[in-house]
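Supplementary Methods, section 5.1.

A reviewer requested that the exact input to the structure prediction be made available. We therefore reproduce it here, unchanged from the version used in the analyses.
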Amino acid sequence: MRKEYDFSKSVKNPYAKHLKKQVTLRLGVDVIEYFKVLAQETGVPYQNLINLYLKECAHSGKKLTLKWAS
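The structure derived from this sequence is encoded token-by-token as follows.
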């Protein structure tokens, strides 16, 4: 391994900004705990699991049905 590397001719990845975007979400403690337990079982970080689940919902066109108590 070299002591120094020359990055002066390096080029930024033009696709990097399309990969993921940081956002702030307010999730219930129970939801976070559920995914953290699932993360321990699978070995996949819980934030990745949440992303994978939401991606699956988006690709399948899953719709949420809400029923308010009257």
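The radius of gyration is 19 Å. These observations are discussed further in the main text.
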